[in-house]
Amino acid sequence: MTPPKKIIVGITGASGAIFGIRLLDVLRAAPDVETHLILSKWGQQTLEHETTKTAKDVRALADVSYGAGEMSAAVSSGSFRTDGMVIVPCSMRTLGCIANGYGDSLVHRAADVVLKERRRLIIVPRETPLSAIHLENMLKLARMGVTILPSDPAFYAHPKTIDDLVDHTVARILDQLDIDSDLIERWAGDMQGADPVVALHTKDT
C-alpha cells in the first residue's frame, strides 16, 4: 500500500488564522493525507481572537499535533520523512527566523528541516505594506526554492462570501502540494459579458 502523504501545517501569529483552519479541514477529508500541526503560541491567541474556534478544536482537525516548543517532536528531525510543509498564515517574525536560520520554536525548526532536506516549503505571508526587510527575506527564501504564496484572492470567479475568498487561497496551496480539489472554479479563458479585445498590429514600413 502507498503510505499517506505527510504534510506539516504551521499556524503562526499573523492575522488570517482562517486560512490555516480551512486548509486543515480540507486535508482532513483528502484521501491518503496525514497532517502534522504546529500551532505557535501567538498563532493560538490570534486564532481564538479572530475565529470562534479554540486551539482544541483546531488541533482535532489534524492527525498529529505538537506543542510550539516541543523540540523533540518527530517533525524536528530530517529522518522523519514528510512531503512538505505549509506555514499559513506566516508572520514576518517567523519568516525572518526561517530565512536566517534562527530556530527557537518548533515551527522554525520544522521549516529548517524541510529546507535542509530539500523538501517542499510553502509560506503564506500575511502583512501589508511590506518593508524592504520583509521583501529581502522572501527573496532569500524564494532563491532556496521556497514557494511564497500570498493570500491574494482572484475575482474572475465572482466570489460572494469570505469563504469563497479563503477557498481560493487554500486551493492554490493544494495545487502546490499536488493535491486535487474542487474548491474553486478554474480559469478557462471565458470572459463572459466582456467586449472582445481587438488586437492591433503595427506593420513595418
Profile the largest sheet. Answer: 6 strands, parallel
**Structural class determined from secondary elements:** alpha/beta
| Oligomerization category of the chains in this entry | single chain
Helix segment count? 7
Q: Could you give me the name of the CATH homologous superfamily?
A: Flavin prenyltransferase-like
Tell me what you see in this structure.
The protein is α/β, with parallel strands linked by helices and 205 residues long. The mean pLDDT is 92. The chain has helices at 17-29, 41-50, 55-59, 92-99, 106-116, 132-142, 162-176; strands at residues 5-11, 33-39, 64-66, 85-90, 121-125, 147-148. The protein has a six-stranded parallel β-sheet, sandwiched between helices. It is globular. It is 36% helix and 15% strand. The protein has a single domain, classed as Flavin prenyltransferase-like (Rossmann fold). Strand 5, helix 6 (132-142) and strand 6 form a beta-alpha-beta unit.
Sum up the structure in keywords.
single chain, 205 residues, alpha/beta, Rossmann fold, 7 helices
Task: Explain briefly what this protein structure is.
The chain is an alpha/beta fold and 205 residues long.
Task: Walk me through the topology.
Elements: E1 5-11, H1 17-29, E2 33-39, H2 41-50, H3 55-59, E3 64-66, E4 85-90, H4 92-99, H5 106-116, E5 121-125, H6 132-142, E6 147-148, H7 162-176
Helix pairs in contact: 1-7, 4-6
